[in-house]
Amino acid sequence: MNIQGLQKLTLLDYPEKVACTMFTVGCNFRCPFCHNASLVSHVDMEKNIPVEKILAFLKKRLGVLDGICISGGEPLLQPDLEDFIVQVKEMGYFVKLDTNGSNSYLLRHLVEKKLLDYVAMDIKNAPGKYGITIGIADYDLGEIFRSVDFLMSGTVPYEFRTTVVREFHKREDFAAIGRWIKDAGQYYLQNFQDSGDLIRPGLRAYTRDILVQALEVVRRNVPNAELRGME
User: Fold this and answer.
1) pTM beyond 0.90, yes or no
2) pLDDT by residue (tens digit) across 31-44?
3) Is 198 left (phi over 0), alpha (psi -120 to 50) or beta?
4) Helix (H) or strand (E) holding 188
5) DSSP 8-state class, residue 173
6) Are 95 and 115 a contacting pair, CB within 8 Å?
7) Three-state SS at 153
C-alpha cells in the first residue's frame, strides 16, 4: 500500500459515522481541478506511511472511531488494497471507499466479498465531456458506465458526486448527468475549491446561485440530489 496521508478524525467524509480518512497515492486520471495533485502527479514515495502504522492507529482508536474512509488518488490502483481492508474489517470497522469508478471488476469484487460498507464515486462530467474533464482525451467510458450501473443496482450503499468547476461544467452538462444517473439514491454537487495543490492552477468556482440553478436542473431526473459543502 502506498499511503501518504491520514486525517485522524472526520465527521464529514463518512455519512453518519465518526471516521478517519486515509489517502493513497497515485491515480490513472489527471483531472485539472484535482485538489490532491501531490498524491497524483507530484508523488514523492519517500513520504509513504507504513501500513503497520495505520493499522496500529486503528487498533488504538477501537471504540472511538466507527470506520475508515479510503481515499486518494485512486485507491483501487493499490494491489494489496483487499488484504488491507480484510485486516481493517477484522477489527470491526466500517469501510467507505472513494473511487473514480475506473475499475468496475475490483469494485464489484470487494463489495461482493462484503469488504465495503459504503462507496462514493465521482461523476466527473457528462459522458460527452468526460475525457477533457479527466485530462485524458478519447477515454473509453466502459468501466465508468459499468461502475455506475453496478452501484445503482443497490448492492451496497453509495453516493455519486460531482465537483463543479466553471471551466468544465455548463447547464447542459448537468442535464446530461441527470439523465445518465436518473433516480440515483444519492447525488451531490460540490463546488470547486482551490486547495493550492492543483494539477492546473487558475480554475474557478461558481457562485452559490449558479449551483442552486444546476441543482434544479439535476433534480428533474435525480430528486434526491443535494448541494454539499455550501454555507
Assistant:
1) yes
2) 988 877 777 766 67
3) beta
4) strand 187-191
5) H
6) yes
7) coil
